[in-house]
Design brief:
220 residues; mainly alpha; D-Maltodextrin-Binding Protein, domain 2; 2 domains; two-stranded antiparallel sheet; 6 helices; rod-shaped
């Protein structure tokens, strides 16, 4: 089997001469250890597998029956064969694979939304108006208390849409006029700013990974 063992000469009436990578290794061993050898092919021309009567054929059978001292070929090392003969250290490994055409990378206009899944985006979209409503309610409570105490009413986030706008501006890291005089509003806005910081940091890190590493599903 090329390029390990090949017939170099096959003259009628003379022993066959062999060449190949494994023959070169055998010649080097014979020279280093000082022995002579004679090569012959297995009678059935097989590598060797176990028969129903637990005997072996091929090269493995020749070794087990001690008709041969060693066997040279591109033989596969299997647990069954290793249980009856000793293999040298393998000097070549190969595997069988399937080649396919590389899929074309598709760039979607929605790649900016890839770092988070739909559930996360839905929660963020729902959190903005919810926090805006909470800010609006707290602002109304503060306005009622200021009116009863004869104090000027706060002007920022006086309406619902302005409160939602302030929350959205904080989410996209844009400043705006916001009056957070009460402790409750400070707690709410402080918690929202912390949430915004975590979300933006996670989004930036994931977006950088999505833009630098091409993620393609294996079609096989």
């Amino acid at each position: 089997e090329e390029p390990f063992v090949m017939v170099a000469e096959n003259i009628l009436g003379q022993p066959k001469r062999y060449k190949g990578f494994s023959i070169d290794v055998l010649d080097a061993l014979a020279k280093a250890l000082g022995f002579k050898y004679e090569i012959y092919q297995a009678p059935d021309g097989r590598y060797g597998h176990q028969l129903h009567n637990t005997s072996w054929n091929g090269m493995i059978g020749e070794l087990i029956s001690k008709r041969a001292d060693l066997a040279i070929s591109a033989i596969t090392i299997t647990p069954e064969r290793e249980s009856v003969v000793d293999f040298s250290k393998r000097y070549m490994d190969y595997s069988v694979g399937i080649l396919i055409k590389k899929p074309e990378e598709k760039i979607s206009i929605f790649s900016l939304f890839a770092p988070f899944d739909f559930a996360v985006w839905a929660c963020i979209a729902a959190a903005i108006p919810v926090v805006g409503v909470l800010i609006f309610v707290l602002n109304r409570i503060q306005a009622v208390r200021a009116q009863s105490a004869s104090q000027p009413r706060p002007s920022a986030s006086a309406t619902l849409h302005s409160a939602i706008w302030i929350v959205y501006g904080a989410f996209v890291q844009q400043g705006g006029e916001s009056s957070v005089n009460s402790m409750a509003m400070r707690i709410v806005m402080g918690s929202w700013w912390l949430f915004t910081l975590i979300v933006c940091s996670s989004y930036t890190a994931n977006l950088a990974a999505f833009l630098t590493v091409s993620r393609m599903d294996n079609p096989i």
